Structure formats: C-alpha cells, structure tokens
C-alpha cells in the first residue's frame, strides 16, 4: 500500500488569523476531505487524518509562510492540488505550493516576523531595548513562568518608521526555545510604552544557516 507525504505552503491572513491552531487543523481536514483526496488515516478506534502543521501560529497573527503535511494512499495530481484546495478553503487561507516530501521540519531554526506597532517611541529606543536586555515572564519547558531575558533569542532586528507607526522586522529562534513575537510586545509595553498596540505577521521560516525553508528543497 502506497503512503505519500504531501507538504503544502499556504498563507493565513485576514479574519483567518483569529483561528486557533486546532481550528486551523479542522479547517484543513474538512478541505482535504471535500477535495476528494485519498487521505491516510490513523489506526485505532477513532481514526483521523494524518495531518500536522509546522511551528503552530499564535492566535491573531498573520502568516505568509505556513507549512502543513498530510498523508495520501496513492499518487494525486500535484499540479492542480493548490487550486482544488483553494476552491474549498474559507476566506483567509490560500495554498501557494504543494510538493511530495520536503525537508524535515526539524530543520526549521528561525522565524522571520514583522511587528507593526502603534507607539510614539523612537526607532533608536526600540533597537536599543532588543539588543541589550529585555526581561519578561516567559514559560519554560515545565510551563512555569520565570523571568527571562529574550534578547539572546533574537538573531537580528531592525526598526523603521512607517507613516505614523513603527515597523519591526526580526528573526527569532524557532527551536529550543521558540520565541513567540508576543514576548517582544510584552517587553515593549514593560520598558517603552504600556499603551502600545501591535499586529504580527510571520514572513518566512529559516534553517540554521538563515536560508529560506523552501518546500522544494
């Protein structure tokens, strides 16, 4: 019996950003079923589609660089798969690419993110904070909140004025540990501006060398 692993690259934008990780899994499970694909299921009393998402996205965060794997039992038309899925996916989800296999998810080491801030502080103060020390309450592997300096988990960061807002582009660790960009927002409110408002977008997933985690490689 043939077992193939299919990887999708997709975007999650607009209202879809408010869906949780589990809700997103359900959305794709329904779409894959509606597309009539020969899906692979788990064994046992309660079988479900073999499906996983790399580096789950936080609620409220958009992304141009999501990766999802699922299993099929026979060859399928890869060229038409993105359009088939886009026809049945809800607003805010858009599949850009589908390939057989792909690089191991464990090779994802960093995530590049964009943070847009409604805050009157200067770009110099922002970069100064995130290149010196920014201690916040962060959960450790035991799920305990402990004071943690997040700066060592920021590979690089840049800030520029964009109209009446600030736009921060940062490369954050995505493995041991995963640094959620919301921790940067927490530090910003703690040290710079308690009234600051933020929006978040994941721009890219990167490997250990800082190269794009391309599904075709």
What structural class do helix, strand and pairing data support?
alpha+beta
- Outline type: elongated
Q: How many strands, what sense, and barrel or not for the largest sheet?
A: 8 strands, mixed
| Tally of individual domains | 2
**Quantity of strands, as a count:** 10
**% residues in beta strands:** 35-45%
- Uncertain parts: none
Mean pLDDT, to the nearest integer, reads 93
- Gap between N and C termini: 26 Å
- The CATH superfamily title of the largest domain: Pseudouridine synthase I, catalytic domain, N-terminal subdomain
Any guess at the CATH architecture of the largest domain? 2-Layer Sandwich
Binned, the helix content reads: 10-25%
Radius of gyration: 19 Å
Q: Can you count the helices?
A: 4
| CATH C-level of the largest domain | Alpha Beta
Succession of helices and strands: EHEEHEEHEEEEHE
Description:
The chain has 217 residues and is of the alpha+beta class. It has 2 domains: 4-102, Alpha-Beta Plaits (2-Layer Sandwich), CATH 3.30.70; 108-206, Alpha-Beta Plaits (2-Layer Sandwich), CATH 3.30.70. 18% of the residues lie in helices and 36% in strands. The chain is built from 4 helices and 10 strands; from the N terminus they run βαββαββαββββαβ. It has helices at residues 21-34, 81-88, 123-129, 182-191, and strands at residues 4-12, 51-53, 61-72, 93-100, 110-118, 135-139, 145-149, 154-162, 165-173, 197-206. The strands form 2 sheets. Strands 1, 2, 3, 4, 5, 8, 9 and 10 form an 8-stranded mixed β-sheet that branches. A two-stranded antiparallel sheet has the order 6-7. A hairpin with a 2-residue loop joins strand 8 (154-162) and strand 9 (165-173). It is elongated, with a radius of gyration of 19 Å.
